[in-house]
């Protein structure tokens, strides 16, 4: 059984094992711009001016690769329940969590390692992955049965996500001058997969040396994330790493690689990472909106012409994922 970061954290008093110490060019103590919190664009979903909102989302996706959404109509208590049941799961005894351990070739389940580790360096995080939509893609063997309300809380959150997902794709499409349904259809339409990940970052005695999740872009089309109140998300902007402002009850939206590809580079996927805290546990709940694995993704044909040639290869999403997780060039 792989050792979990939760257990390492419990016995780490002043130092951390060397495999968790990042190289100097990645250490947050050295590489973070301290004292400056990045205020990414905030999009108010209650704004009745559709055209203005599409323009703001397009600008944020082009210039930042991220934005935060407020007034999104997901009730605060639905988010609070999602977070409460996730927290309860991670506080269960180890043997109860290990029931949901990942199988060798599965991304779903409870685990610690996600991708090929460069130079044997590890992230200070445990996680749980499982799909929450569509029903045909769900494998309940990876959904915790304890706490008993886990399933209900996740199903309720998925239900409230649907209108948010549709609005995001519609406005991103309109921002490219496409029909409102163009990007969602190209990403899988009703077969689009919602993959939930819970990140659990226990307290770390040397937060200046470690990272929870190393610098990466998301391979999804779009990521919709809710964090707990412990600061930790950092974005790479203008050549520097900054903390991202925490807005209570906002949804943090990341543009993922597939939307960058479909937009032929007009929208940019966000380079981001997670830092950890010396005293507090940080958690986050990203939902990755993924194309079905056998869907072929490439630049949208309506964005291509003699002046705009494709900048990205067209390939099956499962092949893209394999290359990304194994650090093979696309």
Overview of the structural elements:
With 330 residues, the protein is an alpha+beta fold. It is built from 9 helices and 15 strands. Helix 3 crosses helix 6 (150-175) and helix 4 crosses helix 6. The model has no long low-confidence stretch (mean pLDDT 95).
Number of helical stretches of at least 4 residues: 9
Rough outline = globular
Q: Biggest sheet: strands side by side, in what order?
A: 2-3-11-8-13-6-5-4
Q: Give the rounded overall mean pLDDT.
A: 95
What share of residues are in beta strands?
15-25%
In short:
28% of the residues lie in helices and 23% in strands.
What topology does this entry show?
Layout: H1 5-11, H2 28-31, E1 32-38, E2 42-44, H3 50-63, E3 66-70, H4 76-90, H5 94-98, E4 109-111, E5 126-133, H6 150-175, H7 182-186, E6 193-201, E7 213-216, E8 222-227, E9 233-237, E10 240-244, E11 251-255, H8 257-262, E12 272-274, E13 282-290, E14 296-297, E15 315-316, H9 317-325
Parallel strand pairs: 1-10, 2-3
Antiparallel strand pairs: 3-11, 4-5, 5-6, 6-13, 7-12, 8-11, 8-13, 9-10, 9-12, 14-15
């Amino acid at each position: 059984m792989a050792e979990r970061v939760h257990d390492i954290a419990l016995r780490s008093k002043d130092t951390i094992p060397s495999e968790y110490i990042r190289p100097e060019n990645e250490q947050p103590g050295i590489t973070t711009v301290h004292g400056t919190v990045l205020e990414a664009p905030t999009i108010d979903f209650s704004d009745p001016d559709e055209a203005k909102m599409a323009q703001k989302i397009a600008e944020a996706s082009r210039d930042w690769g991220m934005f935060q959404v407020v007034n999104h109509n997901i009730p605060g208590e639905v988010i609070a329940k999602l977070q409460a049941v996730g927290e309860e799961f991670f506080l269960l005894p180890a043997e109860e969590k290990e029931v949901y351990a990942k199988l060798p070739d599965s991304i779903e389940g409870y685990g610690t390692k996600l991708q090929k580790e460069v130079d044997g360096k590890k992230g200070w995080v445990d996680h749980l992955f499982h799909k929450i939509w569509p029903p045909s893609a769900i494998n309940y063997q990876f959904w915790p049965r304890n706490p008993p309300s886990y399933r209900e809380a996740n199903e309720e959150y998925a239900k409230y996500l649907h209108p948010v997902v549709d609005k995001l794709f519609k406005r991103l499409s309109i921002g490219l001058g496409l029909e409102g349904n163009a990007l969602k259809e190209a990403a899988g339409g009703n077969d689009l997969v919602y993959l939930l990940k819970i990140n659990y970052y226990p307290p770390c005695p040397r937060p200046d040396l470690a990272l929870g999740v190393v610098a990466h872009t998301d391979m999804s089309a779009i990521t919709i994330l809710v964090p707990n109140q412990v600061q930790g998300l950092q974005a790479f902007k203008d050549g520097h790493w900054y903390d991202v402002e925490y807005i209570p009850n906002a949804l943090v939206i990341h543009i993922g690689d597939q939307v960058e590809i479909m937009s032929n580079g007009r929208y940019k996927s966000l380079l981001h990472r997670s830092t950890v805290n010396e005293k507090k546990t940080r958690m986050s709940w990203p939902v990755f909106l993924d194309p079905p694995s056998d869907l072929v993704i490439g630049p949208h044909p309506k964005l291509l012409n003699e002046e705009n040639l494709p900048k990205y290869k067209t390939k099956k999403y499962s092949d893209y994922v394999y290359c990304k997780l194994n650090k093979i060039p696309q």
